[in-house]
Design brief:
Blueprint lengths: L4 E7 L6 H9 L6 E7 L6 H11 L3 E5 L5 H10 L6 E4 L5 E2 L3 H12 L3 E10 L5 E3 L10 E2 L2 H7 L15 E3 L16 H11 L4 E13 L10 H18 L4 H28 L3 H10 L3 H21 L3 H20 L18 H14 L7 H17 L5 H4 L1
Parallel strand pairs: 1-2, 1-4, 2-3, 6-10
Antiparallel strand pairs: 4-9, 5-10, 6-7, 6-9, 8-10
């Protein structure tokens, strides 16, 4: 069998998640895979969990870093072990759809792409909500990513989905030239793929929600700080110094991102000054960049809204009322297509229409997967909701539904 896929998992203290991650990879319909797990000196029992998984699954290779180096350093160490034709990056706390590798491989072959990625279904630690990175209708058909758009999408306040969160699936030969920038803790995937795009590599997105991205408090992607932003600015400056002349659209995107990062840096500096506290520093930062007051307000409002949601989630009658409103909204979205679907019958849904599929999955999440009676339809749904069986502590979900 050809098309060996090498799956790289950088692990750090994900003992409570990594078995779910590995199982979702082992169960892929594309069976020709190798799993390379690189542990970044975990302080939990990750090694014990992974070692037990190796006894059941010989396709797993475990490597352990000599020093704690972060996700980019850890993935680079994994690249040294790759034997496959294609490489997939999967995080140690996430889960994937059983057809993910088959769908991405077929799509990459059809498009002649060097890199492909799919949409992310976000699920949460403290709520039962789900959402998608590529949720707007205009992002729900396959499309080619251009460098300028990719740069802008990874700039705060651009209004674009942050494509740097997408998990790449790419041809192995790219590793002959490219590796992760080990100075970066955040935006390392963005920097890795951007260098490929600037060299003319073909990057296509299949906007199917096949990657299930766990949002929780220990996620590294949440930890923006002055230090991480400084490194992002430095990485961009280093890249600009090496790429030479680019078209006006790309250079304008770089300029926008630079301004965005500087604003983020001022904001993080303000947060640090407030926490310590340093009144003179606070005043100086606000005078230097008054616009960060808007960021402070938005951050506070967002945090307050999140706490309110978590508080009212404790009351069943509130949750039920809110769900009823959301259910009506999702039904309108689905029926706005002009098609009147039998919502209790998943077989009637056009799963090839990604916009409708995502709206339908949101509806199913609100109604409850156990409410759907059609067996074939339920099996289809289970493949998109395997994360919920773990997140909600439901065992043997597939038998129950």
């Amino acid at each position: 069998m050809t098309n060996l896929i090498s799956v790289i998992i950088a692990n750090y203290n994900s003992a409570c998640f990594i078995e779910e991650t590995v199982n979702s990879i082992i169960e892929q319909t594309h069976k020709n895979i190798e799993i390379i797990i690189v542990d970044d000196i975990s302080s939990d029992n990750s090694i014990d969990v992974i070692t037990k998984l190796q006894l059941k699954h010989p396709e797993i290779t475990l490597c352990v870093n000599k020093v704690n180096g972060g996700p980019a350093f850890t993935r680079n160490n994994g690249f040294a072990k790759v034997k496959g034709d294609w490489v997939a990056i999967v995080d140690s706390d996430d889960i994937i759809h059983k057809d993910r590798f088959k769908r991405l491989l077929d799509f990459a072959t059809k498009q002649g792409a060097d890199i492909v990625a799919d949409d992310l279904l976000h699920f949460y630690e403290k709520t039962n909500e789900i959402n998608f990175l590529l949720e707007e209708k205009k992002y729900c058909t396959p499309y080619k990513v251009e460098a300028a758009e990719y740069i802008l999408s990874n700039s705060t306040r651009s209004g674009l989905p942050v494509m740097g969160y997408l998990k790449p699936f790419f041809r192995r030969e790219l590793l002959e030239k490219y590796s992760y920038n080990q100075d970066l803790i955040i935006a390392e995937d963005y920097d890795f793929l951007l260098r490929m795009l600037l060299d003319g590599k073909q990057f296509w997105i299949l906007p199917e929600p096949l990657y299930f991205y766990r949002k929780h408090s220990n996620s590294i992607s949440y930890r923006l700080s002055e230090g991480t932003i400084d490194k992002m600015i430095s990485a961009q400056n280093q890249l600009l110094a090496t790429i030479g002349s680019q078209n006006n659209e790309i250079m304008a995107a770089f300029k926008y991102r630079e301004k965005s990062l500087l604003r983020d840096l001022y904001f993080q500096s303000l947060i640090t000054a407030i926490k310590r506290p340093k009144p003179l520093r606070i005043i100086g930062l606000i005078f230097a960049k008054p616009v960060i007051l808007i960021d402070l307000y938005n951050s506070a409002a967002s945090g307050l809204l999140r706490r309110i949601k978590e508080f009212f989630a404790k009351f069943d009658f509130v949750v039920d009322r809110v769900n009823r409103i959301k259910i009506r909204r999702q039904r309108k979205v689905i029926n706005s297509s002009g098609n009147k679907y039998d919502l209790a019958n998943p077989e009637a849904i056009d799963f090839s229409d990604n916009f409708l599929l995502k709206a339908y999955l949101k509806l199913v999440n609100l109604v409850g997967i156990d409410k759907f009676k059609n067996q074939k339809g339920r099996d289809k749904l289970y493949d998109y909701f395997r994360w919920s069986a773990q997140a909600r502590g439901i065992t043997e979900l597939k038998d129950k539904i």
